[in-house]
Write a structure and sequence with these properties.
6-stranded parallel beta sheet; binds zinc ion; 2 domains; 405 residues; globular; Quinone Oxidoreductase, Chain A, domain 1; alpha/beta; 18 strands; 29% helix; Rossmann fold
């Protein structure tokens, strides 16, 4: 216990580990050092006394996520806050790390700002309440109900200064490049934290993050009023994009999807028309619904090399194609098609300042989050009822929320 109150925690930690070496096997020591290393005690304490350890789901390699006791974050450093987590959603990127990682998690060398390497507490779609506040934090107070953007950014590079925190030169995505929300507590910079009003539940608040991804993509497309929009893929991000496009006034939304369950969800959440590429040429089907021209705006929310091309091809001339999917393989495409049709191809990564809008729209009833939640589980069941459930029953699941408490 003493190590977390020490004026020289590193020295104390070393002594403790030396002591522990005699007591436990090396695996136990390795486990004990996952989590948070106490820095120094020079900040004024505001808030609860943090416990020494907590329960967390730690990524330690492909197909190797473990729920265990780890070091809890100490009192937050200046400018940071500690959050007691209520709910944290499992994201497609978490699933990627589980099945095919490391994708974003730093291995080989530590992240330049967070020092994270080889092991990371996953989870970036969380909600909770503020339990301690570091020095100099003005906008957030103890007890505030909050959610947080995952883009921990430096604030100093060209992209941060231009208002693109998601493109920061040393961006550290929470739950991938710094410890995340599949834990009792998470510590994050106060400048990524957003308060949620009383009428927004913690469950809904944990969906602000994926909805902000959809909102960012939709905003990239400009004014959607009166336009016909196509969305490729009705997974979580595709559905969030459909919801945001609907809320921002798209006239007609065509969802391109093959799974029966996902087609139904797309219709339920705001799509007007389903195009199933298994039931005939997708481009011809989209043209049939758009007076022969193609969609004015297309969102690629799948991330497959073939659907990248399809997204461009089913868009009308001078239309916009927003690429949102995470592509693993390159696509081959003759870009003369783009030259000759003046289509605009635009990338969209995470979000920038969409959190406030999304929170307000949920609060105002313009975005309904309940239909996105297909499971609520305890952190103890995160592998079997979370990750494995998403692998085995992909089509019937959208968002599974995990409670660490
Ligand atoms: Zn996510
Ligand atoms: Zn930056």
């Amino acid at each position: 216990m003493a190590i977390f109150d020490s004026a020289n925690p590193l020295l104390e930690t070393t002594i403790l580990f030396k002591k522990m070496k005699g007591m436990f096997n090396t695996q136990a020591i390795k486990h004990a050092i996952v989590g948070f290393q106490t820095k120094s005690k020079n900040n004024m304490k505001k808030g609860m006394d943090m416990p020494v350890t907590m329960k967390a789901a730690v990524w330690e390699g492909r197909l190797n996520i473990n729920v265990k006791e780890v070091a809890a974050p100490p009192s937050p450093q200046p400018g940071w806050v500690n959050i007691k987590v209520e709910w944290c959603g499992i994201c497609g990127s978490d699933l990627h790390e589980y099945l095919a990682g490391p994708v974003f998690i730093p291995t080989g060398e530590p992240h330049p700002r967070t020092g994270i390497q080889d092991q990371c507490i996953l989870g970036h779609e969380f909600s909770g309440s503020i339990v301690s506040v570091g020095e100099g934090v003005e906008n957030i107070s103890l007890g505030d109900r909050v959610t947080a953007s995952a883009c921990q950014h430096c604030g100093e590079c060209l992209y941060c200064k231009e208002g693109h925190p998601n493109l920061c030169e040393t961006v550290a995505f929470t739950g991938l490049m710094n410890h995340g929300g599949f834990a009792n507590f998470v510590t994050v910079p106060a400048n990524v934290v957003y308060k949620i009003p009383e009428n927004v539940s913690f469950e809904s608040a944990s969906l602000v993050e994926p909805l902000s991804v959809g909102m960012h993509a939709v905003k990239k497309a400009g004014d959607l009023k009166g336009k016909t929009v196509a969305v490729l893929g009705a997974g979580t991000i595709g559905l969030c994009t459909i919801m945001c496009a609907r809320a921002l006034g798209a006239e007609k939304i065509i969802a391109v999807e093959v799974s029966k369950e996902r087609k139904n969800k797309a219709l339920e959440l705001g799509a007007n028309i389903i195009v199933d590429p298994k039931e005939g040429d997708a481009i011809e089907q989209v043209k049939k619904h758009t007076g022969g021209y193609g969609a004015s705006v297309t969102f690629e929310c799948i991330g497959h090399k073939d659907t990248a091309k399809l997204a461009i091809d089913l868009t009308r001339k001078a239309g916009k194609v927003i690429m949102v999917g995470i592509f693993e393989e390159p696509s081959s495409y003759n870009f003369f098609e783009v030259v000759a049709t003046e289509k605009e191809i635009i990338g969209s990564l995470a979000y920038q300042n969409e959190f406030e809008d999304v929170i307000k729209m949920i609060s105002d009833g313009l975005l309904e989050t309940n239909s996105l939640v297909t499971g609520k589980i305890s952190i103890d069941d995160i592998i079997n009822m979370g990750f494995e459930e998403l692998v085995n029953n992909k089509d019937s699941n959208i968002k599974i929320l995990v409670s660490p408490n």
